[in-house]
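Service request form, structural biology core

Requester: graduate student, group of Dr. S.
Request type: structure prediction, single chain
Budget code: on file
Notes: please return the result as structure tokens.

Sequence provided:
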Amino acid sequence: MSIDNNIDPAINARNAPRAAEKILDVARQLFYRKGIRAIGVDEIVRQAGVTKPSLYRNFSSKDDLTASYLKQYDKEFWERFDEAVATHPGDARAQILAFLTRVAKRLQKEGYRGCGMTNAAVEYPERGHPARTVGEDNKKELRRRLRAMAAQMGAKDADELGDGLLLLLEGAYISAQLFGPGGPSKAVARNAELLIAASVEATISE
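Core staff response, request fulfilled:
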């Protein structure tokens, strides 16, 4: 009989939320730093200081744990995005530049490993996998928002500008891993500004 089964069920119930939080926190750090596929359940429970039964009581599988990690990542991403947008009410151009300026600062930090959503999509090429699905939904919503914001700016081709901004951002995520601090990703906001100006000013001049 496992140690967990000897514990009073009421105690298990009280400890469950804390155990789940600890497991998710450890999994998040390991998945982000080393990659999802590279990390096994044994490593997670060892570093979290819990047992396998405890993990599986809170997460039905590693895929479930992975999806939970990415859902948390997704939530925090939109919190940062919305926070930047809120600093410039009604000014889509300033909103995007504010967001990308903040992104650039994170990209310059030592140990930056790119966007967790993008990394997951690369690790899980198969459509329908829980990890890939969360990432795809995030990117689709980001694309929708960027296109809508480009339209608010009066871009000649809002969809084209929105997609250009998305490509620029994804390129910054990758180049930050390749070049590290001081690399081209530090200029992501400035390049976005040039891209926006070229698109919006082309409309004004017509």
